[in-house]
């Protein structure tokens, strides 16, 4: 009986295995299963680092298919948490697939003497794969480590599209870190995105050509680029879509880079306006007034949608350039101004030209008074009629009456408020659908008779660090605004009283 029971169990297991082999998932071709893996791992947004090992644990067939899919191994990362051996395996399994390489060593006190060695080992490993590198990101503590690492790469990069070099100690003076030779021997035909933080590359204009995204930051003292250098770069990038300048010392204090007479003669004259028809996003954070004004006066941006001006001191000249651009065409939807000085009347005059603006953020602006909100409340005509999000963080000069009037003016019209358009009492309905239809008709009639377009209702407002706004005022705002952001009131023991 025991022998028969054993044979029965073996036969049952064999039958179950044969049934599983007939499953449609098991019979999928390897090419189709590989495509499903690529979509599931890479096509769903952020890549999960444990997703591929999980797929390989399902069965031997899935493991072999995952190993034979180069795209699953095309992302190579070398850091203190990602050893070089792991990167070597990924390079082997990716075969000839385009690579996305990241080398990231944050400054740490316990490994300050080994970072340079680890970076050099990583660059030696990646050097044979430079010809198929699609994106490359390098983040190290010091400039000397970047220059020593890039000097090892003396080949071209025909597939490179995105280049990012970040130096954490941007203010540190390092006289040994001289500008490197032309990166990738000056041959990067597909390069479209550059992001440099405190990286001194001699401002070789051959590298910054035909870019779509340009981000520069962390340039102080003698490494600050001159206005003529940046203008020369912008002239070579007529298809630029995003421009970001952060933490750049004022050019009046530390002039640097090629002077007017050293700019190549093949470039157009600096007196001509640069038309950046595809520029949709621009940000200037602590870049100095002289540099920002010079750039804004030399470019035209008819399709600009997002603009950030932060820590620039007096921006009245920049407001003037924006107003001049708005007289012809500008499609600005997002505007952020933080810790700057401006003329309130000029700012309101600019807002009157920004009819497509939906998000306005004015943070830590002591120059803004109640005149600013009263101008947005007036309907002669409406200023920024599509405004939905307003950020007034740390604007302590605005009084409560003007803020309440502004919110009330943006409320939608009520059907009962247009009683003159109802012919009888029976015309007023209580059904939800009919009431909505009546409200729409009332809004149309209001627009037709008055000639004014009712503005959009305010969707969110931020009154954080506004000491003049009390708890009762915040509760009133929450009745008419969907999202109200404010500081939480704390009790005696530090607990949150107001959420």
UniProtKB/TrEMBL annotation:
Membrane-spanning intervals of the chain: none
UniProt superkingdom: Eukaryota
Protein name: F-box domain-containing protein
InterPro entries, A to Z: F-box_dom (IPR001810), LRR_dom_sf (IPR032675)
Residues of the F-box domain: 27-78
One Pfam family per UniProt: F-box-like
Annotated organism of origin: Agaricus bisporus var. burnettii (strain JB137-S8 / ATCC MYA-4627 / FGSC 10392)
Gene3D superfamilies listed in its UniProt record: Ribonuclease Inhibitor
């Amino acid at each position: 009986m025991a022998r028969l029971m054993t044979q029965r169990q073996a036969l049952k297991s064999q039958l179950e295995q044969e049934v599983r082999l007939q499953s449609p998932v098991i019979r999928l071709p390897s090419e189709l299963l590989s495509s499903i893996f690529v979509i599931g791992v890479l096509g769903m947004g952020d890549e999960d680092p444990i997703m591929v090992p999980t797929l390989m644990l399902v069965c031997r067939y899935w493991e072999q298919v995952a190993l034979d899919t180069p795209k699953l191994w095309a992302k190579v990362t070398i850091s203190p948490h990602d050893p070089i051996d792991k990167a070597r395996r990924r390079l082997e399994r990716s075969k000839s697939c385009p690579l996305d390489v990241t080398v990231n060593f944050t400054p740490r006190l316990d490994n300050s003497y080994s970072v340079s060695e680890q970076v050099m080992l990583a660059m030696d490993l990646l050097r044979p794969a430079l010809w198929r590198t699609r994106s490359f990101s390098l983040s190290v503590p010091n400039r000397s480590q970047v220059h020593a690492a890039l000097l090892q790469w003396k080949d071209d990069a025909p597939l490179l599209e995105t280049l990012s070099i970040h130096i954490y100690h941007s203010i540190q003076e390092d006289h040994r870190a001289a500008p490197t030779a032309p990166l990738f021997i000056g041959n990067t035909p597909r390069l479209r995105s550059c992001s440099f933080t405190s990286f001194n590359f001699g401002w070789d204009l051959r590298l910054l050509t035909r870019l779509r995204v340009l981000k520069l930051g962390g340039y102080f003292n003698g490494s600050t680029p001159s206005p003529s250098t940046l203008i020369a770069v912008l002239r070579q990038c007529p298809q630029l879509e995003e421009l970001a300048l952060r933490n750049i010392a004022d050019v009046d204090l530390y002039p640097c880079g090629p002077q007017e007479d050293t700019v190549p003669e093949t470039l157009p004259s600096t007196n001509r306006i640069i038309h950046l028809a595809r520029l949709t996003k621009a940000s200037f954070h602590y870049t100095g007034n002289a540099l920002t004004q010079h750039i804004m006066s030399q470019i035209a941006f008819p399709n600009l949608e997002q603009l950030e001006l932060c820590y620039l001191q007096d921006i009245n000249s920049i407001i003037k350039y924006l107003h001049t651009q708005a007289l012809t065409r500008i499609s600005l939807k997002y505007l952020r101004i933080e810790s700057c000085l401006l003329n309130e009347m000029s700012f309101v005059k600019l807002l009157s030209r920004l009819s497509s603006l939906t998000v306005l953020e004015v943070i830590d602006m002591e120059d803004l008074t109640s005149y600013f909100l009263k101008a947005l409340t007036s309907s002669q005509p409406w200023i920024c009629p599509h405004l939905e999000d307003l950020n007034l963080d740390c604007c302590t000069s605005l009084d409560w009456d003007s803020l309440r009037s502004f919110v009330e003016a943006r409320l939608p019209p009520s059907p009962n408020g247009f009683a003159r358009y109802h012919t009888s009492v029976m015309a007023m309905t209580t059904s939800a659908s009919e009431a909505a239809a009546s409200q729409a008709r009332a809004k149309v009639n209001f627009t037709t008779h008055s000639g004014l377009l009712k503005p959009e209702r305010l969707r969110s407002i931020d009154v954080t660090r506004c000491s003049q706004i009390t708890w009762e005022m915040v509760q009133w705002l929450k009745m008419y605004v969907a999202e109200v952001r404010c500081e939480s009131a704390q009790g005696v023991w530090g607990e949150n009283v107001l959420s």
